[in-house]
Design goal:
217 residues
Amino acid sequence: MDLPRVLTALAGDLLPIVTGLPLGSTLAESVHRLIDGRHRQAKDVLVEELRQGRAFVETIAEVDELAAIFLKYIRAAEEGTARLNLRLMAMTIRGMAHKRTLAASRFLYYAGFLATLTREEVIAIATLYKNEALEPDRISDSEARGPARVRTRDEFVPAVFPTERHLNSTFQAATRTGLVVGASGWGRLEYETTPLMEEVAALAPFRDALENEGGYL
């Protein structure tokens, strides 16, 4: 079954249930308009991503997993999750479907931190990960951290981050997600991406998401 078609069918069945708000007052109608707009945006982003690759579901179990995933995704949209974050979540769904690893529990884990990332954090993490890739032994060789972070600093200070302190603060805040971690190196605290970032990036490349949502600036 083609995934965009399955998604459209699920949306028709589930969105009225998700909204669950009675009409009858100006406030309720305003809320409905707001939620409806967020639903449309979220669905458009997800369908756009799913149409970029061949993604199928072949069993009822996979459809059930997709339904649970879709509910979480739509809930995130209802709560005001930024479009960039929705893009990352949609890319994750596409990646899981392509790899035939659709599992609601795993997606809920990913979504828990993807929804909280600020744009600045996505930029910083994406660039650090790109620069680490230039060092083939970045995981085992602690000396790789320094050059990768220096390249990241030079690339975005002051173009994106006013000072190195702002960049450091962004990395420190992002450690809550488990995608980056602080480590001692070059006589100072350095940051490096984690195996979790590798796992997520294999599903949802951060740089691609940024390019789709207005670039780095």
